[in-house]
Amino acid sequence: MTVNVAGASVRKDWDTYFMDIAYMASTRSQCPRRHVGAVLVQGKKLLGTAYNGAPMGVDDCSEAGCMLVEEYEMRVVDGQQELVKKERCVRTIHAEQNLLLFTDRSDREGSTVYVTDQPCWTCANLLANSGVTEVVYDRPYLKDSEKVKEMMRQRGIIFRRMEGFAPPPGTSLQS
After folding, report:
1. pLDDT by residue (tens digit) across 111-156?
2. What gap in Å lies between CA 39 and CA 26, rounded to an integer?
3. Residue 47 has pLDDT above 90, yes or no
4. Is 96 a catalytic residue?
5. So what's the pLDDT on residue 32?
6. What span, in angstroms and rounded, lies between the C-alpha atoms of 52 and 143?
7. Mean of pLDDT values over 47-75
8. Long-range CB contact pairs, 25-29, < 8 A, 24+
9. Is 156 left (phi over 0), alpha (psi -120 to 50) or beta?
10. What residue stretches are annotated with the CMP/dCMP-type deaminase domain (predicted)?
11. Which long-range CB contacts under 8 A does 141-144 form with residues at least 24 apart?
């Protein structure tokens, strides 16, 4: 609850409310590198929540260790090609992927996804074909940021970062 200067309580706006819920979902994650949460909303109706982690019934990274792989991507920076190394865990299913797995296509049509972190390239591709019309995130993911923004623009999906958002106390684990 937010309190204004006169001491009266003020309701949170809908963006803050749903992003708070995404952060609360992220607290279920066992990932030692980053907790990510996502929620699916249609209008003002919450349709699903998800977080990142290993498949059900499989040891997660806190039990079995991260399963990291290195990938390389060619990027053009100032007219020069450069090879960029990326590292990712392949044991973990991302929050956005879990959200899409556990919600119905009909619920996603015209909906908004609130996610604690800007989607990676793979998740952005899945979201682009999922039926959602808006993706709202808090923390940027610089490795894929520009190409994800461009793809969302081309797809006509509203893609925006929540400016000035502060996660609820005790919910933010990032590396």
Report:
1. 999 999 999 999 999 999 999 999 999 999 888 899 999 999 999 9
2. 10
3. yes
4. yes
5. 84
6. 18
7. 87
8. 25/49, 25/50, 25/51, 25/95, 26/51, 26/52, 26/95, 26/116, 26/171, 26/172, 26/173, 27/51, 27/170, 27/171, 28/53, 29/53, 29/95, 29/173
9. left
10. 13-159
11. 141/117, 143/84, 143/86, 144/118, 144/119, 144/120
Which entry of 63, 70, 73, 96 is annotated as an active-site residue?
96
- In this prediction the pTM is 0.85
Count of C-beta atoms within a 10 Å radius of residue 123: 26
Query: Which residue do the tokens 């940021």 mark?
Result: 145
Cβ–Cβ < 8 Å for 54, 44: no
Question: Could you read off the pLDDT of 50-62 as tens digits, one per residue?
Answer: 999 999 999 888 8
Which is higher by pLDDT, 132 or 89?
132
Q: Residue 32 is encoded by which pair of tokens?
A: 């030692």
- What are the structure tokens assigned to 65, written together? 């260790």
Average pLDDT of the residues in 150-170:
95
Residue carrying structure tokens 């969302």: 152
